[in-house]
């Protein structure tokens, strides 16, 4: 009998949403354990080797793998064990985060199980534990799943362990519970509390015998079907809000970067500095948010920024400067007219630019002033490596 660890396939959150409970740990463990009870052969692989394993061989494999302790002088019978398991989750109001065997020892101390029954329950505990380890669930949701684990053991005891591989209503219910509760927590405030409370009422009624498992599954489906569209809308609003914040941060970064590059080493009068680092800075951010970094609008805004700052610099090429001063105000107005956001603040600032042009044309330009460059959040420049591509695509 091999003693190497069972190779359990990892399951991430996305996979778990699309994959049923019975397609994960249970069949892989059953198949792997069954292999250890079969003689090595070069025969062709069976489509479903589990079906060819005799129940006695499967029980032997489970005993060999889980190594049950030696039973006491009085061993609980299968019928009594099934009754014990059915009532086990209702014996306390605590959140049951412990495996079945731990709960039996806690609430039925001294109960002795046969090696076959002990190994089977250990297998169910193990399968549930592996799934809970590989999903991101609040501890209360894990407790709800643990509440249903004894009923899985009952199915295996009443039929056999292979029954856990077959479609079972309780497995579909557990799958829906986990799939619909990923990401939820009591830490989310009143909404999280209300969400957990509603599920707890449904689950507790079932495990205490006030309702059947079938009614529990129906009630959970009805609850999730009703609430999920509401929560999806809230989730979308939250995503939109966060995307808006992130877009604003990226816009500030690229607008400041552009202005700093063009203003560095340039001679600029004080009121032009205020205009560039005020209204023009905000204008560039709006262009970025509205059209994106790779848009023709951003390229045009970048070229206008370069041209405006360049047109205000002392130069020996008077003809080119006069050409820029004559054409830039109208080019800026034409560009603003094409944009979908309010450009009134930007158009108002044109008076500052044309006023300085008049002084330059008269041969008495305003004197330059020292200035500090805009502050830049350097981490935003690394955002492309830390933000998911689909989110960046929405922003850009």
Task: Explain this structure.
The chain contains 16 helices and no strands. The protein has 396 residues and is mainly α. Helix 6 (115-133) runs antiparallel to helix 7 and helix 7 (139-158) runs parallel beside helix 9. It is rod-shaped, with a radius of gyration of 35 Å. Residues 1-25, 29-46 and 383-389 have low confidence and may be disordered.
Helix/strand layout:
Elements: H1 13-18, H2 25-35, H3 55-66, H4 78-87, H5 100-107, H6 115-133, H7 139-158, H8 169-181, H9 190-207, H10 213-263, H11 270-291, H12 296-311, H13 318-338, H14 344-361, H15 383-386, H16 389-395
Helix pairs in contact: 2-3, 3-6, 4-7, 6-7, 7-8, 7-9, 8-10, 9-10, 10-11, 10-12, 11-12, 11-14, 12-13, 13-14
Structure summarized in a few sentences:
The chain has 16 helices and no strands. With 396 residues, it is mainly alpha-helical.
- Helical content stands at 55-70%
Biggest sheet, in brief? none
Low-confidence stretches: 1-25, 29-46, 383-389
- How do the SSEs run, as a string of H and E? HHHHHHHHHHHHHHHH
Query: Averaged pLDDT, please?
Result: 80
Number of contiguous helices: 16
For the terminal residues, how far apart are their CA atoms?
Answer: 58 Å
Strand content bin: under 5%
Shape: rod-shaped
How many DSSP E strands? 0
Structural class: mainly alpha
Radius of gyration: 35 Å
